[in-house]
Amino acid sequence: MSNKYERFYIIYSIWLLVFIFFTNKYYDANELVLINQLDSLSYMAIANSAPNYTSEIIPYHHAQRLFFPYLIGIFANFLGFGVFNSFQFFTFITLFLIIYLHYLIIKKLKTDLFFSIISISLLVLNPYIFRYSISVPTMINDVIFILSLYLFLLSLKFNHNYNLASIFLGLTSRQNGIFIFIANLINLFFKKKFLFWKERSFIFSILILLVIFFISNHYASKVSIQKFDYKHVYGIFEWFSNSWNFIEFIKWILLPLYSYFPVIIVFFIFRKLKVFQKQDMKDYSILIFLFFSIVGMSILSGPELSGRNIIRLTSLAYPIILVWLSWFTILKKKSYNKSLIVLLIVSLHVWSLHPTYSDISLFGFSSTCF
């Protein structure tokens, strides 16, 4: 992008933030329970009790994600800020960082202005990322995980030394961080073959994994009665065995389209795959592994455990698709249909108006629809 186009992109990004902030719905800590955000109770309990252990019994897998709620609690309690307001403050900072890293990647990929505008719209206007995290800031671990993905993708493509930071943020925010750790190993293996274990980044990544594993499990053992519920890994098979229903399964497995359908439309209208080069094999393999591992984990939990949360959980892999579109696809035609782009941008704004997370409810939809 030229300097002129870059300024336009930045102004448009500011508009998106203004639009989201002024049309978003803001809940307080007590209201989150009313919209079925029960996970928030665990993270509020961790933060409220920091720097001590919480006296409340919380699920083991929530307690393992203590790091950021715990730090936010220390920050709030030490400085006398409200804990919930501190969650909001750090959520906003994380969202700004995500926008900056997205901009950095598409700029380095030399993405044209029109597709850059489409790409940032797909990110910011996705109601299951920005709107959701603003409405439910106690789920800050989700956006920190997305931030860790952006750092990893930046390192993967441009050889920046953010891979250890991405592993740390990924592992401390969600158990899915293990897939970023493995993706880094795959990257090292492609580069160094069987000598990858001698790399400093490999040694440090192992240390990060072990330290986080020990601390998270130690904390969880103090505040949880039961161990990790492995139904989150095999729940789908139990559901197949005990509750199989074809129609219910199809309705459930298609729920992520609420988040991904606009990206699919954009690809088929505007983009086509680049000619595959042999040197792309490494990066293609890693992106495929990362995407399907993150999405696959939410599917493995099954309809009983994931429920409608499958939309949010699969959306954690959303940045991979956005970056892939700029990285491995090109413009289908020689020029853009400007009218079609305007229609698309307006449609994405409407798509963002989620009935639970937006102040503007269209068509009388109830929040239970989404």
What is the structure about, briefly put?
This protein is mostly helical. It has 20 helices and two strands.
- The main sheet orders its strands as 1-2
**Rg from C-alpha positions?**
21 Å
Structural class, judged by helices and strands?
A: mainly alpha
Strand content: under 5%
Oligomer type: single chain
Q: Could you describe the largest sheet, including whether it forms a barrel?
A: 2 strands, antiparallel
Word description of this protein:
- With 370 residues, this protein is an all-alpha fold.
- Helix content is 70%, strand content 2%.
- It has 20 helices and 2 strands.
- It has a two-stranded antiparallel sheet with strand order 1-2.
- Helix 6 runs antiparallel to helix 7.
- The longest helix has 26 residues.
- The protein starts with a helix and ends in a 19-residue tail after the last helix.
- The C terminus is likely disordered.
